[in-house]
Amino acid sequence: MGEPAKVAAARGAAVEARIPVTVDAGFHVNSNHPSEDYLIPLKLTWTSLGALEGGEVAYPPAKAEKYEFADKPLSVLSGAFSLTVSFKVAANAPSGPGVASGKLRYQACNSNTCFPPKTADVSVAYQVQ
Amino acid sequence: MSAFRFSAILSTALALGLFSAGCGGTVEVKAASLKAEKERKTAPDFTLKDADGKVVHLSDYRGKVVILDFWATWCGPCRIEIPWFMDLQRRNRDRGFEVLGVAMDDEGWEVVKPFLAELGVNYRVMVGDDLTAQMYGGVDALPTTFLIDKTGKIAAVHVGLASRKDFENGVEQLLQAPAPVASAGAGEPVVSLGAK
Predict the structure, then answer these.
(1) Does B2 contact A20 at a Cβ distance shorter than 8 Å?
(2) Across the interface, do B1 and A13 touch by the CB < 8 Å criterion?
(3) CA-wise closest residue to B145 among B69, B89, B77, B84
(4) Which residue from A3, A9, A108 is facing B18, i.e. has the nearest CB?
(5) What pTM was computed for the model?
(6) Could you give the ipTM of this predicted complex?
(7) Domains plus CATH for chain B?
């Protein structure tokens, strides 16, 4: 895990975090709204927001891709994309640094193989001014 | 109220190593050919419970040709193969052939049983665990399917969606192979003819 980017934000300010994700070439992950019920969606959840509030996640537009193992095109994400998260700094937030932590759950496949769902740690570092 | 824009850095491991564990980045779908008998290794025995709670040992099936399929409900390619296995089971059950499914869903029977009922799966399915997966090399990529000969040895491994013909040909070849002769050689378990 690299060092999270740090930002300075005033109390009450709206902040937006962009979380870049890259999927290896030849693989895809299900989008946040998979086209089949049995598929596991991409989902970012926050376990600790610290002095931030909200944390609503905007997922990128999915692609409809056809694979040999499915009758219909699947709603997937591949390559490089970003999740955008909207926060608000709490009005009573103490000055100083903090980190919002979350978990990104994903399930990946290639054209003929799937891999078990996994969860990756995500963190957003902030500095309340 | 000003809006700030900032980036949270996901680890490089997350971004680039999403699928590296256990699969080496690429997965090759292997050809149908069976291994030569002398190159085959004994399939590890396991003890798992089926949907009825009955204990299943792979060794119970010594003397039969077995398809051992590791799969999961969330795995699209697995869902393509399962009806093929149901058909193979239906056509070859009386010829000394069995399909065994090992579901690798973390949620276990809660999600597996409804799926089995929905499809009307006609062969025994167990819920797998880490130990079973480790015995078979990790089984991180699904489906992973082992063709096991009458002596309990692995004759072929298919990682990923294979062709129906590959399975049919493999099973037929193994069924037509001569039945093993019981022996008690050093280091080898006694071969039992027919399932218990």
Answers:
(1) no
(2) yes
(3) B69
(4) A108
(5) 0.83
(6) 0.88
(7) 18-192 (3.40.30.10)
